[in-house]
Amino acid sequence: MTDLRDGAVLRPARAGDETGILACIQALADYEKEPDAVENTAEMIAATLFGDDPRAFAFVVEGEGEIRAIAIWFLTYSTWTGRHGIWLEDLYVHEQYRANGYGVALLAALAAECLDRGYSRLEWTVLDWNEPAIGFYRALGAEAMDEWTTRRVTGDALEALAARGR
Q1: Is the pLDDT score of 10 beyond 80?
Q2: Which residues share a beta bridge with 63?
Q3: What are the distances in angstroms from CA 103 to CA 28, 47, 63?
Q4: Nearest-angstrom CA–CA distance, 93 and 28
Q5: For the chain, which domains are there?
Q6: Rounded CA separation 46/41 (Å)
Q7: CA Rg, the chain, in Å?
Q8: Which Pfam families does the UniProt entry name for this protein (predicted)?
Q9: Mean pLDDT throughout 22-28?
């Protein structure tokens, strides 16, 4: 647990945080202009983060009993380095708490997690129109991987691709 300058604390997520985490996820979807895209539920978050075999993890910033910010992450693996890394799926700070250092604190905690575990990288994506986030990440030394593009298969295309392998 890390105490932050305004009395909030940064800590690993724990059972009971699901509603606050989900509120951050929904607020992020709203910000990213996808308000109806969130299918997640508090129950799904509980199973994913706190079930018998967690495959995703989260750090939260909590203040006065409220989840103010989240970093949700999972492990990756680099065949080139032969080591794991961390993929940051979501970083979100509620708007009224921005400029309190929460984003830097969450990313610093993830960087420390990488180093402590011997992981080789910390990676994430950012929407190309999100200039405030891009500037924030650039100021922390994050490099754009301009030569790489993300690809995704979902829905009908996912089903069709799976059928080709069956």
Answers
A1: yes
A2: 66
A3: 14, 26, 14
A4: 9
A5: 2-164 (3.40.630.30)
A6: 9
A7: 17
A8: Acetyltransf_1 (PF00583)
A9: 98
Query: What is the CB-side half-sphere exposure of residue 17 using CA atoms within 13 A?
Result: 25
Contact (Cβ atoms closer than 8 angstroms) between residue 9 and residue 62: yes
Residue 97 has a CB neighbour count (10 Å cut-off) of 17
SS3 for 76? strand
105 Rama class: left (phi>0) / alpha (psi -120 to 50) / beta: alpha
pLDDT recorded at residue 124: 96
Q: Which pTM was predicted?
A: 0.93
92 is an active site residue: no
Q: Is the dihedral of CA 136, 137, 140, 145 positive or negative?
A: negative
Candidates 92, 102, 119, 137; catalytic one? 137
Average pLDDT (57-63) is: 98
Q: How many CA atoms lie within 13 A of 110 on its CB side?
A: 27
Rounded to a whole number, what is the distance in angstroms from the first to the last CA of the chain?
47
Q: Which helix (H) or strand (E) holds 19?
A: helix 18-31
Contact 54, 48 (CB under 8 A): yes
Distance, in Å, from the CA atom of 125 to the CA atom of 128, rounded to the nearest integer, reads 9
The band of 36, judged by pLDDT with boundaries at 50, 70 and 90, is very high
- Residue 5, pLDDT above cutoff 90: no
